[in-house]
Write a structure and sequence with these properties.
seven-stranded antiparallel beta sheet, 3 domains, six-stranded antiparallel beta sheet, globular, alpha+beta
């Protein structure tokens, strides 16, 4: 995989050398709206550095022994690397330094896209480009649909890959027929859909959730593919979509534990952001700060982190509107009740992403608690689980106001993940 990345970067570098212009560059500056590794660059320091580069660029018309570094002589890929460490405010200011910084800070041409590769049991492959793409607050939703799906009975696996053009030309739109680099994000089995993976249905389709984050819609009558939706969290999405290979996904660099954490105090200072949405409509968008759990709340390999307390009415939250998951094909569309997409981002006490996911979820009916208020209607629960932990949400339907209220939200964090993250021995 390292050899593949080197080949890809070499091709980009050769293209940059051939297309180097005084006022522009190639590629897109990494967005600072998502998550970044490290503390970043503060505004004052970043602005001072940019002014120094601007002064150097004005003084040095050409290379000389006194001043060997200038804006005109610095390769665009180096400048893009520098800009990738700037925060949003400093990046906006970078566009005001000179015209070259303006083009580099605002160039959005990357050619990045996503495909699914459907593999038959015979070995034949079908490559399908995405039809729709929507960017949410902390995730990307990618949709595939059409009339020319292969028969489901012949398929064995589905590969989700990010694709980028091997040869970049900022003056042209990347062609679909040109050579593209594939970066494997996830691999799914299509040989069997257990009933446990079905999360909802309507009169036309049934939808199945394949972990991580894939939603597959099947026509009820034919039991054939209707659409495929991938939900990808923005954390490390650029790396996962570009730095892997067709056979192996991108491997995150080794994590360095924060050794100054004290196990006796448990977890503290955590921050959680949760979205529930579908089709551009948000049913929930909330941030919870200063979350903590004590060492005594560890049980069965999980640390219990209570976000919304059941008995504290002031913490209960309503969902906006009637929850439903929108779907569409080139012929039909619809909405499946009680289903949605959940995006979750949990930051540790240092502000680093500890647990992130984007996944379809379903509100399922559950018995009403015996100690619940008399005005409560039907009760529901939402559950999600992966290697990092589990999420459990309880909701009630308030008949008077005709809306769902979240009355309990609990995270169960994997102790193994905590020990790996902090170097502790819980």
């Amino acid at each position: 995989m390292a050899t593949g990345r080197g080949r890809l970067l070499l091709q980009h570098w050769l293209g940059l050398q051939a297309l180097r212009l005084p006022l522009g560059g190639v590629g897109a500056a990494p967005g600072s709206g998502g998550f970044r590794k490290g503390a970043g660059v503060e505004f004052a320091a970043g602005w001072t550095m940019l002014k120094q580069y601007a002064r150097c660029g004005r003084k040095c018309e050409g290379p000389s022994a006194a001043c060997s570094v200038s804006l005109d002589g610095m390769p665009p890929e180096i400048l893009l690397k520098i800009l990738s460490y700037l925060d949003a405010v400093t990046l906006l200011c970078a566009g005001c330094v000179n015209r070259r910084f303006y083009h580099l800070a605002n160039d959005k041409i990357s050619g990045l896209g996503w495909v699914i590769i459907l593999k038959e049991k015979s070995g034949r492959e079908y490559v399908m480009d995405h039809v729709e793409l929507s960017v949410n607050d902390s995730s990307v939703t990618i949709v595939w649909y059409g009339k020319n799906w292969p028969r489901l009975a012949t398929l064995s696996t589905l590969n989700l890959c990010g694709v980028t053009p091997v040869f970049m030309d900022r003056s042209k739109i990347p062609t679909k027929n040109g050579p593209r680099w594939h970066s494997l994000i996830a691999k799914y089995s299509l040989s069997h859909f257990p009933e446990s993976t079905m999360i909802g249905c309507d009169r036309l389709i049934r939808i199945f959730h394949l972990n991580p984050g894939l939603l597959v819609g099947l026509w009820k009558r034919e039991e054939e593919l209707a659409f495929v939706t991938a939900n990808l969290h923005l954390h490390h999405l650029a790396e996962r979509s570009t730095l892997g290979s067709a056979a192996l996904p991108y491997e995150l660099p080794p994590h360095t534990p924060r050794l100054d954490d004290t196990p006796e105090y448990g977890l503290h200072g955590y921050q959680l952001h949760v979205d529930m949405h579908s089709g551009g409509i948000f049913y929930l968008c909330s941030t919870f700060r200063n979350l903590f759990t004590k060492k005594g709340h560890i049980e069965n390999g999980y640390a219990k982190l209570i976000v919304i307390h059941f008995k504290n009415n002031t913490e209960h939250l309503p969902l906006v509107g009637k929850v439903g998951l929108s779907w569409r094909t080139d012929v039909f569309d619809g909405c499946i009740k009680s289903c949605s997409i959940m995006d979750m981002t949990l930051l540790d006490e240092y502000g680093q992403p500890f647990w992130c996911f984007s996944s379809p979820v379903c509100m399922r009916s559950s018995p009403r608690p015996s100690d619940g208020p008399h005005f409560w209607g039907q009760t529901y629960h939402v559950d999600y689980a992966d290697a990092s932990g589990r999420l459990h949400m309880e909701l009630v339907w308030i008949t008077e106001t005709e809306e769902h209220f979240i009355v309990s939200l609990v995270l169960y964090l994997s102790v193994a993940k905590i020990n790996h993250w902090f170097g502790t021995q819980y």
